[in-house]
Amino acid sequence: MGLEGWVVVEEARSLRILTLEGRVSTVLKDLAVIEVEAPGGEYIRISGRVLIGNPLDRVKEYRWRVSRRCRSLSRLKT
């Protein structure tokens, strides 16, 4: 599709992108490969399939994984 712009709305299965031309386009996550510019100028490619789902649920899942990993690492250190 080749859109460039800013993500203005993230929903469970789609993103709404404000394009450089000023239009809002809807993109389905499961069909997209998203390229994001990191603060250092490096570009990161992300498969939209890993972003499917409610954004808040993804944050909860990430926190659970990190806290579980930290607990297992602390057991290894002792």
Automatic annotation (TrEMBL):
<dbReference type="InterPro" id="IPR023534">
    <property type="entry name" value="Rof/RNase_P-like"/>
</dbReference>
<protein>
    <submittedName>
        <fullName>Ribonuclease P protein component 1</fullName>
    </submittedName>
</protein>
<dbReference type="GO" id="GO:0001682">
    <property type="term" value="P:tRNA 5'-leader removal"/>
</dbReference>
<dbReference type="InterPro" id="IPR036980">
    <property type="entry name" value="RNase_P/MRP_Rpp29_sf"/>
</dbReference>
<dbReference type="GO" id="GO:0003723">
    <property type="term" value="F:RNA binding"/>
</dbReference>
<dbReference type="InterPro" id="IPR002730">
    <property type="entry name" value="Rpp29/RNP1"/>
</dbReference>
<dbReference type="Pfam" id="PF01868">
    <property type="entry name" value="RNase_P-MRP_p29"/>
</dbReference>
<dbReference type="GO" id="GO:0030677">
    <property type="term" value="C:ribonuclease P complex"/>
</dbReference>
